[in-house]
Amino acid sequence: MRLSGAVLAALVLLVAVPTGAASLGDTGPDRHARVGEPAGREPRPFGAECRTRVHGSAVIAYCHNPYPETDRVRLHVECDRWWDLDVDSAPVEAGPAQTVRLAGRCWKEVRATWVSHQK
Length: 119
What we know:
Radius of gyration: 29 Å
Oligomer: single chain
Number of strands: 7
Mean pLDDT: 80
């Protein structure tokens, strides 16, 4: 099978053209999808600052949100005894410049406690 010069030139151009360059309508620097933050901008700070206190088997956390976005915070309490149920509080919305109180407890000793954040 012999290919004519025009067909051979068309095949060479198709192989040589980079992917996406031959598509119509996708021109300019904004033709690709942007992922994450724009280049040159640092991500905005997020998340309430939380202070947790353990008193015996009771845990209390105060979370203050200094940022303009609402932070949904949850208190997690891990109990020391194997038969003692761990506690995960319901999410509480800490709005801008708002302080919220979270509480949880074990029957006996507390092994660990932490607060999770969600946008």
